[in-house]
Amino acid sequence: MMIGARRTKPKRLVRSNVDQARDLRILQSLAWAGFLSTGQIERLHFPSRRTAQRRLRALLDHGLVRACLQGMSLHLQNVYALTAKGSEFLAARGVQGTKPRRLVRFQKLEHALAVRDLFVAFSMAAANVNAIELEDFRFEDDLAKEPVFQSAGIIPDGLAFVRQGDDRRVIGCEIDLGSETGRMLKSKCALWVQLLRSAVFEKMDLLFVVVGAGRASTISDIMVDAGAHCSCVLRSVLIEHPLEFVDGLFAQTIRAVRIGAPEITEGFQLVEKVAPGGFRIADGL
Fold first, then answer.
1. In this structure, are residues 159 and 195 in contact, taking their beta carbons and an 8 Å threshold?
2. Domain boundaries of the chain, sorted by first residue
3. What is the pTM of this model?
4. 25-34, 57-66, 131-140, 179-188: least confident range
5. CB neighbour list of residue 142: distance below 8 Å, 6 or more residues apart
6. How far is CA 41 from CA 6, 49, 173, 191, 226, in A?
7. What's the topology of domain 4-91?
């Protein structure tokens, strides 16, 4: 029998209220990321797992989110996504342009959740107004149709847009769970080298999240041999402080602009094509 914390179906009789400010922030985070696990939502918005589960069940009972199991793995956390009703709920409160996203198939879910672990790590210190700002974080499905990446032949797992004072840069993110062969890694790194050398973004770093020190060393060696640099952070259970690994430029905490904001920050835009093989940043990054 499934315990209450693992419930995935809404109750017919609803007694809870779901118009708290934190409820809105949860829905906005789901609209941004597409889907998040219970633990990821907890780290973004709650002091404890029990409190997070209680609020998520309330949102589920009101039809604003849907809850899914990770395949048939009952020991793994639920995954939550925005519903059409949740999108309408946000629109009625001034948050436009949100829509439900389809959950990836189970075979790709572990990787997709690992990308969202990185998103959470970039976003956790939202209350620290003196730290780095995360102006945007875009996922693979956000980037797949961008001409610059189609031309480069590589779609990043994630793209973080960050600011520290007047310094603004883009961080390309790759999650490596050890499933790719050495040949596939070399091919991917070669494409990243070409993209970094093209100077599409004036300031761009490459961050690999890997499962072990051996894999990190392999990737670093491949990039060095190819004539470029990347930063590697080891992934254990959680990715805690990704920014401190990017050439020492960043502090450990950042402020997430987009979470809780009625509209997506327009401080960064993706590139626009100006000539065959040449691109520039639309807003002069």
1. no
2. 4-91, 108-281
3. 0.79
4. 131-140
5. 159
6. 15, 9, 21, 34, 38
7. Arc Repressor Mutant, subunit A (1.10.10)
